[in-house]
Each structure stands twice: as structure tokens, then as C-alpha cells.
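User: Teach me something about this protein's shape.
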Amino acid sequence: MAAGDAHDLRARYDAATADLEPPLAIIDMAAFRANADDLVRRAGDTPVRLASKSVRVRSLLEAVLQRPGFGGVLAYSLAEAVWLADHGVDDIVMGYPSVDRPSLRRIADEESLAAAITLCVDDVGQLDFLTAVLGPGHAVVRLCMDIDTSWRPLGLYVGARRSPVRSPAQASELAQEIKRRPGFRLVGVMTYEAQIAGIPDAGAAVRWMKSRSAREIDRRRRRVLDAISSDADLEFVNAGGTGSLEVSAAGDGVTEVTAGSGLFGPTLFDQYRTFRPVPAVAFALPVLRRPGPRTVTVAGGGYPASGPAGWSRLPTPYLPPGLRVLRTEGAGEVQTPLRGREADALSLGSRVWFRPAKAAEICERFLSVHLVEGDRVVATVPTYRGESRAFG
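Assistant: First, the predicted structure itself:
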């Protein structure tokens, strides 16, 4: 970002939140909308299912679902899915299996929930668990089968360790078992290509890996779909994430893609070459110490993102530009020292704006986010935490 642009952006954010006390978090709504439009553009004619773990603000989820090109939610917690369904979301697919007994019993008892929520399975043992918890005579439960999409050349393992279902034969065996059990219906297949969606594409070797992996997944997904076609009347085949929308949407048999992180534009996407979301989320921390020349200390800041521990998971000082986190201290639980020439121009109480490494995990640190239009806060809305909801 050019120095002048950074100065104007900082001035705009400071002016919008002048009457608010940091720490605070904002969503730049112009950037948020631009990112939403870009996700739809990248997906082409394939509908985008919204990953709730990457938003964690119910009002924003609902607003995005009203936009053309988006449809349905991919939830990360069954309790979250039930909560969203209670608030009117009627198309929710679980991205992960669940052993949440109270939420499962609600689905068994309430046909409206059973119709709105599709559970994720990848193992006969999960079917046994569901059968035991739900009991006899429950409402028909919708199921989505998660297929392993890791790439395994020459005995290597590249990708996420998710489903044990990999081959067409394994998928067929599970589909037949679902068909045999009363009260269950297989309606979807999920293929999340973590090694394509979740790894920055800088470097020829990574781009080669992604291309080879995508071709292998495409061939195997088609064989899986053919293998289960006689045992399931599928409504959807889900694939991808923000980092792989173009590749996933073009996959053979794919009817929908998933995205969410691209709405916020966190720093982990800064290294991608094929797309670049606009930074839409930021949080401000106040300067509370001046330990020495070119050094300030801000309150808090220890908000690491999930994934392999390392510097890429820490929040990044954003505005004013030029500040950096000290390698010897990192981002601290109650304070974070920053270095840079720009520090000398900051006074006690000045704001330093940060960007998170990942998307909505930062919402777990704040009870609300302030929606900014231009140089004004137009609304303040609760996060999941602000609605007293913590889903892990």
C-alpha cells in the first residue's frame, strides 16, 4: 500500500472510531462487499456456500446469504448449526462430524431441524454413534459423505488428515451401509482440497503440486460419484475453499464451492498470486508505553491464529505502516512491543491498527464489531461471543 493511501486509510479508521475506546474491531464494509463480489466472480456459475467459521458474526452471515451467488452455510459446530437454524437459516451442511449428543437429539426430535441440517460422516462407526444417540423412529437425517482429497505421491502425504474414505470402493461401502439403515439419507459429498485451498501459491514447485493434485482429485471424485450413484440420490457435491475457488468450481461433478475467509482478507492470503482480497477486517490497540527510541508498546495483541505455530500466525501491524513485532517477544497476552521509525510519531493513547492472520478467529476476542462505511461507523453488531455463543 502506498504511503499516501495508508495515511488516508488510517485517518478514515481513526475518524470513524474516534468516539470508541480500543481495543476494538472493525469491518470495512466497502472492502467486505468487494470481496464478496470477487468470490462469486471467481466461482463462475457455481454457487458459493458460506463457511461460518470464517465469519462468526450472525448478521454478516445473513447479509451475505442475501447476495446473488451465495447459498447455504457450511457450519463448523453442530450446536452452531442448530442455533443458526433456530434463527432462520434453512440450508446448513456440517463441515465436520459431530458427537454433540444434545444437538443430535434436537435434530431427532424436530423435523424442521432435520430438514435444515445435513450431518457429515466418513465412517461406519459414526453411523453407529448416530444410531445409538438418535434412537428408533427419529426424523430422517440428511448425511454428507466426506471424501479424503489428500495427494499421496511416492508415499508422501500432502493435505489435511480428515476422512478415511478415499477410494471409490470405500465410498460405495459406506453409501450402501447408509442406505441399509432406516432414518438416514445420503444427500451430499464433500471434497475439501486443503493442499490447494490452504497453501499460498508462491513458487513453481507449489503451483506444480497444486496442478497435479487437482487432476488426481478430479479423476478420483468422478469415480467416487459413479460408485455411489446407485445408492444415493445426491443433491450436492461440495468442494474447495477461498484459496481454490477457480480450480474447485471447474471440478468434474462439483455443484457448489465453499468460501468465507476471502470476505475478510486476512494476511495469510497476501502470498497468493491468483487472487488478492481487500483487507476488510482490522482491530485497533492503544499505545500505553514508550520504552525507547522507535519503540512503542500496545495493550494486548496476543491473538494467534490456528495452524502450525509460527510468525505467519501472528497478527500484523497494519496502520501506520512500517511497524513490526519484535522477534524476541512476539505478540503478548497483555502487551505487544512494536519497533519502527513510525513509532516516534505515536503518543500514549494513539491507535495501532492490526490485521489478523486468519479470518474470523479474531471475532472470538471481541464481543462486537463496528461496521465502517467511509469515515463513519454505521452499525455495531455482536459476534458469536457477543451473543454468548462459544462453539469451540
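Now, about its shape. Residues 221 and 305 are 31 Å apart (CA to CA). The longest helix spans residues 204-228. If you'd like, I can walk through any region in more detail.
User: That's plenty for now, thanks!
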